[in-house]
Every structure is written in C-alpha cells, then in structure tokens.
Amino acid sequence: MTNKRINIQYSIDLSELPDEVQRLYDKAFAEFKEISFPKKVNDVLDFSTAKRVDEVRQKLAKFDLILSDIQSIVSSYVEYEASSTNPQPQPENPLPTAGMPEIPNMSDMDLSEISRLFNGGVSGELQKPDQRSE
Q: DSSP for the chain?
C-alpha cells in the first residue's frame, strides 16, 4: 500500500480533546524513536548511504505530519478559547450607508427580469411582481 495521505474531519466532545491530542503526541513520539541515523558510515558515497538517508527522510516526513496535525488542533483550540473568553466587540460606529443605493429584493423575480436589470434593461428599474409579463 502506498503512503497517501487524506484529510478527514470528525467531531469529538471537548472533554475528549486532551486524550486525543495525547494519543497523537504518543504516536509522534513513537515515530521519533523509530528514527535512527548512524553517526558515521563506512563509505559515504555508496548506495546504502543514499537508501538510509531516504529512509530517515521518509520517517522524518511522517513525524512532521503528525506534529503538524497536533499543532493545528492545539492552535484551533487556543483560538476557540480566546474567542469564547474575549468575544469580538461590535463596532460602535457602523459603516455609513447614506448615499448608497438600496439593494432591491430579487426573491420574487425570475431570471429574465434579473438579467434585464443587470444588463441595463428598461431604464434600469425593477418591475413590481404584479407587473411582470408572463
């Protein structure tokens, strides 16, 4: 089986989060312990050296992906905690709307009317729903 990664998403109870992060941390630690990089090799310019270095790089990549998952989860949790304890204040002075055209209600219009409106149809004015031509 090839080493292909997919992203999955699932939800857990907030109380289970520490155990889930610890599980991933333990997995990362186990991967880290599997990495053995010899301090010295007999013949540096040998195929076996290239193979060993590739194996170490593959294990480091797997280790890094697990650490990335942990970082993402913990960062999201920290942001969640910060936002729940410090809600974003609402701006005291909302953006001014004076001089801005009113957005028409297009919920009861058919597509041909909307098309005419946006393509400069009959003087750019909307017809009332009872004035629509069938």
A: -------------GGGHHHHHHHHHHHHHHHHHT----S--S-SSSHHHHHHHHHHHHHHHHHHHHHHHHHHHHHHHHHHHHHHHSPPPPPSSPPP-TTPPPPP--TT--HHHHHHHHTT-GGGPPPPGGG---
Q: What is the pLDDT of residues 1-58, one digit of tens each?
A: 567 889 889 999 999 999 999 999 999 999 999 999 888 888 889 999 999 999 999 9
The model carries a pTM of: 0.60
The C-alpha angle 100, 102, 103, rounded to 5 degrees, equals 120
Q: Which residue ranges make up each domain of the chain?
A: 14-85
d(CA 1, CA 8): 19
